[in-house]
Write a structure and sequence with these properties.
Four copies of one chain form a homotetramer. With 269 residues, chain A is an alpha+beta fold. The first copy, chain A, is built from eight helices and nine strands. In chain A, strands 3-2-1-4-7-6-5 form a seven-stranded mixed sheet, with helices on both faces. A two-stranded antiparallel ribbon of chain A has the order 8-9. Chains A and B meet through helix 3 and helix 6 of A and helix 6, helix 7 and helix 8 of B.
Chain lengths: 269, 269, 269, 269
């Protein structure tokens, strides 16, 4: 497969993983920036992520218009993706979802959502809460135009995740694999913090140094990261689709196969 | 299919979705008003919703009597449906269920159940708690006659949902698709509010303006609403049954197919 | 089938339902009193309830000894059953289990477990907590002899359910169908109460009059009760085993079939 | 099978059970000490436990180096196992995992994790919290070298379980069956304690005498312990792999079969 086809194949896998891990249901979506055209991104047409295949992927400009003729319905909230890709050249992939267990953190400032577990470190030290009402007053809470997408991106700033009050979250990352990982662990981190608060006592959050240390060590194709990606893909029934740009298809259910090809340097975890 | 057959087919789908989404179990039921006879409604015979097929649907008058001979057992609590259809000409569909996560909100007034997430907006700004004991004293808590059904409807008033103390809830809406949607998101909204309360701080509820804005935008056949209906139907194993009055059968697992038939106007979300 | 065979067949169904509803796992058991020999009861040999078939059922005397030769391992805690059957002539069936969501109510007296939802009414107004340490000091917490079983029965008194501190619960009822129903709804009632407490405000429990009203209306073969039994059996994969003494086999997945045989009087719920 | 092959076969089963019981996901691992070489242990190569087969097992020295040529990726955190096996000659098996429901107890000292239910007794009276930052400052929280493994083992001391702040836990036991059991019940004990705390009132923990009594009664091949092991293995789809050193293969789904071979002495529970 070409790099582009590989990327779109990964976008299909990302949709299926997010559905299977219950980050998205009928709603929620994941996008990836065009590798050769930074002013474009790929996102599925309006369809539940669980059902998405390669044919459902549509190319968009940053203002949310499909490139070329597209007669099928598209997501209203595509402006979330365009807004973030426009404001953040470093961002290659975006997720928007309503994952239930993070919703409560967007409803009150009583307990700010911050990383407390190592797998939650990638959400970053600060998770701003964007309230669409602050600028747009009474709406249906959906990000329905370029201006609203840009305002959300502004609130996200240089952070990785923004909670959307009464709605869900938007996550931005350097790769599809990272944004999926972040979206899967965000609710887990939220639950751990929510329970810890009920246990009383002072909560130990990850330190900035710990967040930085984990961030430095991150690589989308490290054995550690790859293992989760392949594990989730197999659980979601799309293990066969998994490929590595550097190695082509990996056999379903043999996530660590690639390691055998690096005898010299032992990758681990 | 005729419009009536379409509607009864949707009623079967509604039963299966509510069962699969764990809104109902062995108990709980959903009804729809007769499209041509406002003084009649359709409800299944006494059977767990998960097992219901077209043959199990029975036609009732508003006082809860089956139309024509019906030798099979029927739901005792059919009076909930009759009472609401009688009091609310605007209501076309009713759900009664015991969904676990809403029960606690009917046991105390410590935290009133109100919409906090956008998908919960359809429950409406006010969710009254009906206590059967207020008027009927010590009962088995079941709505077992016309008078009790009417009293529940009176407590519901012009709202969309009423909690039934120590029992469950009753939801009323303009369409089957809306009442199912409302019933699926009611527990989710309850969980988000329940968790938010434990996080401390002041909770931001949806404003009346936001509730109104979402309500104005609602349409049972909008791409957004339809996507969830078809998604839930496929998850429940009845995707094949899904049809649109305006388009006939939609292929299982291709929820957004219908959009392709509207090239002129792009529906979205 | 003879009445006895019918009863033992129901005991197999009860085991499977309790396993499928996660009331029991590798541990926990359900027994039924011998219909013709009040001084005997039936309980499975030592086996996870999920795997139990007719051949695994063993007959015991009230002191916990198998009747006749039994070379297979039996449950250590059979004394729970013997103790209760001995002390309570009115009891026909007993369940002991570790259902997770009731455990916390046995660890503190901060919130006594009482019925708050209609389906929880059968646990009765009072649920005593039996602490094996009160009489027997430091043990492994298991009810391992006649004396301990009798002490538990004494703590149960005339109630339907006793919590066992740090261990689980024991439930006693007039029929297998009722004790299974009680055991399935006990954790649900516990969860509703647990959540309600977190919502603040004063909790409305079922009144004694409501508990009595529900109790008076109870019948193991009422359409209402039967519907749940058949529903649970089908979910547990043993729908085919379901029979009614008055009607013989009921077809799998057609729980309300029996109603068709009572045209005269319409049973309902 | 030889004793060694039996042990490695059990190690595969242990991996599958921990995955199916959601103690591990893409991450987490279980090891067993070499029966004839106390300075060696067995652990899988870097692979999600759900996928592990006999061929994936690797032999390690206590300093975390594979014995013989191993070109495949191995777990970074193998040092957890080496460190504990080195410090604790009595320990034959170790688990490291991120089981979600125990994480919160590692984030605060507000409610120390202690045994409250009988099945949780094996975690021991004291569960220390190890904070990698205390000695190593800002890290990625992973136990990535011998020194960190030794420091964790030092914090574990003579206890059975240590929580790892912001990361997970490490459990050590006398046998594979015991360490799996401990790891499955650790989260359940945590949930029971977490909920009890919300119910208010004083919590009754297991007494030291009760913990000791249960510990004295423990045997990996007791009917009680074996029943859970076989039950979990069947649920995880590897029931066919289950064998007993003293009896050879046990038939899938007939966990208590072995009991029939001990007519003389009736084992029970």
């Amino acid at each position: 497969m070409s790099n582009l086809e590989n990327l779109l194949n990964d976008l299909v896998i990302a949709n299926r993983i997010l559905a299977n891990e219950e980050v998205v249901d009928a709603y929620g979506h994941v996008s990836v920036r065009h590798p050769d055209r930074p002013d474009r991104f790929f996102l599925a047409r309006s369809l539940a992520p669980e059902f998405i295949t390669r044919d459902d992927i549509v190319e968009f400009t940053l203002d949310g218009n499909p490139v070329g003729k597209e007669k099928r319905a598209v997501y209203l909230e595509r402006f979330i993706h365009g807004g973030i890709f426009e404001a953040r050249p470093d961002v290659m992939a975006v997720v928007h979802a309503h994952a239930e267990d993070i919703l409560s953190f967007g409803l009150t400032e009583g307990t700010p959502l911050r990383p407390v577990i190592h797998s939650g470190s990638f959400i970053g030290a600060k998770v701003p809460i964007w309230d669409i009402a602050d600028k747009f007053g009474d709406t249906n809470l959906l990000v329905a135009n370029v201006e609203q997408g840009q305002d959300l991106a502004k609130s996200l700033g240089s952070n990785n995740v923004a909670l959307m009050r009464g709605h869900g979250f938007a996550a931005a990352a350097r790769s599809l694999i990272e944004v999926v990982r972040m979206s899967v662990y965000l609710p887990r981190n939220a639950r751990a913090l929510w329970r810890a608060r009920q246990l009383g006592g002072e909560i130990k959050y990850l330190s900035q140094g710990e967040i930085d240390a984990r961030n430095r060590g991150y690589s989308p194709y490290s054995v550690e990261t790859w293992r989760a990606w392949h594990y989730w893909a197999n659980k979601a029934g799309v293990g066969k689709l998994v490929t590595r740009p550097d190695q082509g298809k990996a056999p379903a259910k043999k996530p660590a196969k690639e390691a055998a090809k690096k005898p010299a340097k032992r990758k681990s975890r």
